[in-house]
Amino acid sequence: MARRTFFSFHYTPDVWRAWIARNSWVVAPADQIDVGFFDSSVFEASKRENDDTLKSFLRKGLENTSVTCVLTGTNTWQRRWVRYEIARSVIKGNGLLTVHVHGVKDKNGNTSTKGADPLAQMGVYKTDAGIYLAEWKDDKWVKYADYTLAIRKGDLWFDPPTSTTVVQLSQHCLSYDYAQQNGHKNIGGWIETAAGLVSR
User: Fold this and answer.
1) Does the residue 146 lie in any domain?
2) Which end of the chain is more exposed for a tag (fewer CB within 10 A), N or C?
């Protein structure tokens, strides 16, 4: 069965690094399929229309995927649409992992500064009304703004939160450093591990 993986990343500064990471994965078994690399003009066109159009575009991109790999540069953790891709991945039950790509050289031969783990900037918490997504914003946890409905306990592949204290997604997911941990050779195994955690 094909392993369909969605790659989430901050486009402008990290697309070169993301391509390197993605291409090192797809050179291995032919049944590996990525659906996270959109033409930038399509993405920008959707963004210009309105938020709902872009959200629909991203949800469609996540269809039929089983893993979401967050390729993380310096400011990826702050990006609204990366957060939305993470949120929708949680809702649909995708395996999640962070791969830091700051140490990968861009087309000009430059590396960048390591940024925070985006999966540590989002989490879940429980209220009497249900389980909700949270995001770290302005130095505090707040209810996630781009998806405000409750999440069904059965949709979570990890133990659901038991209180109003936010549980970071990173507590249930693994993170890696592409440059330091030989991502060229190992990213396929990292993705398979994320899929295994959710039994996908």
Assistant:
1) no
2) N
Number of structural domains the chain divides into: 1
Alpha carbon of 114 to those of 38, 73, 74, 102, 180: distances in Å?
24, 6, 5, 5, 12
Give 149-164 pLDDT, tens digit per residue.
Answer: 999 988 899 999 999 9
Q: What is the CATH number of the domain that holds 93?
A: 3.40.50
In a domain, 141, yes or no: no
Contacts of 149 (CB under 8 A, 6+ apart): none
Q: What is the mean pLDDT of the chain?
A: 88
| Residue 147 C-beta-side C-alpha neighbours within 13 Å | 25
DSSP 113-152: PPPPPGGGSEEEEEETTEEEEEEEETTEEEE-SS--SPBP
Structure-block tokens of residue 116: 């925070």
**Radius of gyration, CA atoms only, the chain:** 16
Minimal CA–CA distance to 15: which of 108, 119, 85, 114? 108
Helix 183-197 crosses helix 11-26 at what angle (to 10 degrees)?
Answer: 90
The answer to whether residue 157 sits within a structural domain is no
Rounded to whole angstroms, how far apart are CA atoms 87 and 75? 18
Distance between CA atoms of 170 and 119, rounded to whole angstroms? Answer: 5
Instruction: Give the whole-number percent of the chain exceeding pLDDT 90.
Output: 64
**Distance between CA 67 and CA 31 in Å, rounded?**
14
Q: How many helices (H) and strands (E) does the chain have?
A: 5, 9
